[in-house]
Write a structure and sequence with these properties.
This protein is mainly beta. It has one domain. It has strands at 6-7, 12-13, 21-27, 33-34, 50-54, 58-67, 78-85, 90-95, 110-117, 128-135. The protein binds zinc ion.
């Protein structure tokens, strides 16, 4: 069992000291930023041009869907959302800190990324660090 929460996704970095952050990749040829490392740049087609890039913790809401049905043990409704981060990178996660009411959620609203220990541990008792987005303060 790990002393420290494990990352729930390969692009979520949990440093031994300091705050967690999301890491995407930036193409050294054209500057395009994407969340996941690719074999070739999606924009310019460059190969081996991807360099690690720390992503912004702020952005805007791109799309959302209110989910009413989920696996047993997962509280519904929740808001599944996609956000564009400032400076590049697109993430999909849950939007928290706001009622799951379409009238209260606005596309393009400012959001920020927030990090938390996932509600459930794995079979070995390890805790996982996960990330959500919430309306920007
Ligand atoms: Zn490129």
């Amino acid at each position: 069992m790990s002393d420290q929460p494990l990352s729930i996704m390969p692009f979520l970095k949990v440093p031994e000291s300091g705050d967690p952050y999301l890491e995407g990749s930036k193409c050294s040829s054209c500057g395009a930023i994407s969340l996941k490392a690719r074999m070739a740049c999606g924009k310019c087609g460059g190969r081996d041009t991807a360099k690690p890039q720390k992503l912004a913790n702020k952005g805007t809401l791109h799309a959302f869907s209110i989910v009413y049905r989920a696996f047993p043990g997962i509280e519904v409704p929740f808001i599944s959302a996609i956000a564009d981060l400032d400076g590049g990178g697109t993430i999909k996660t849950n939007l928290i800190g706001i009622d799951p009411d379409p009238e209260k959620i606005t596309l393009g609203m400012d959001i920020e990324v927030t990090y938390a220990i996932a509600p459930r541990k794995d079979g070995e008792g390890n805790e996982y660090m996960t990330y959500y987005i919430k309306p920007a303060a």
